[in-house]
Model the fold of this input.
Amino acid sequence: MADATELLERESQLSELTGSLESARSGEGRIALVYGEAGIGKTALLTQFTRLHAREARLFWGAGVALTALLAILGLAWTLSRRIIRPLRELSNDASVLASGNLSHRTAIGGQDEVGALAVTFNAMATALEVRHRELNEAREAAALEASKRSSSEQTERHAKETVAALQKNRRAHGPEGNG
Done:
C-alpha cells in the first residue's frame, strides 16, 4: 500500500484529520466525515490516516462501524414499532368505542400478521356482543310482554272471583230462589 509520502495532494486532509484526532484526545470530541465522488481517493486517505495513527484510528473505525450498526438497528426498531403500535392504538380506540355502547362498530385494521389476526378476532367479538345484546333485548321484551299478559290474566281472574263471590253472597242473602 502507499506510504505517507507517496499519497499525493492529501497533506492538508491528513493534517485536518490529525487535528480532529488531537482534539478528540484532549476531550473536545470530534466527528470527521470523509465524503466525495467515487474514485477520488477517500479510502486511500483513510488507509494512510489509519497507518499513521494505528491504535487510535482502529478504535475510531470500530466505533464508526458500531455507530452505523446501532443507527441502523434503531431505525429498524423505530419502523417496526410504529408498524405495530399504530394498529394497536387504533384497536384500543375501537375497543373504547365498543365499550361506550356502539356495538355495531368494527375495526378497519387488516393484515396477515398477528395484529391483523387480533383485528379479525376483535371484529368477531364485536359481532358476538351485538348478537347477544340483541338476543337479550328480545328476551327482555318477551319477558315484559309475558309479565303484562300474566298481570292482565291475574287481574281478570281476581275480578271473576270477586264477581262469583258477590253472586254467592247475594244468593245467600236472598235465598236459593233469589226471592228476597
Residues 1-5 have pLDDT under 50 and may be disordered. The CA atoms of residues 2 and 44 lie 8 Å apart.
